[in-house]
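Memo subject: From amino acid sequence to discrete backbone structure tokens
Keywords: amino acid chain, backbone geometry, structure tokens, three-dimensional fold.
Body of memo: The sequence and its backbone structure tokens, given next.
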Amino acid sequence: MNMIRPVSDLRNNFADISKTVHETKQPVFLTKNGYGDMVVMSMEAFEQMQFDSEVYFKLLEAEREAEVTEERYSSKDVLKAMRAAIGGADSV
């Protein structure tokens, strides 16, 4: 469930909001004059959201590419390419 609080709570109850976002890993939505104004979240939750978003868009890009090409790679081919990219051994 979304936690919604007035923006004045950011000034008056900062410690409580900070504790909430860190413990729940969920954002707190702040309102101004009854309307949504800001979202506060922990750095960890923000970084996870960015990572998830990046993975999602990379998978979406891969799906689009798969629709326009017939080229496919085996898991061995992928592992070999990954090892070559990071300078590892070629053996599989």
Summary: The first strand starts at residue 3 and ends at 6. Strands lie at 3-6, 28-32, 35-40. The chain has a mean pLDDT of 91.
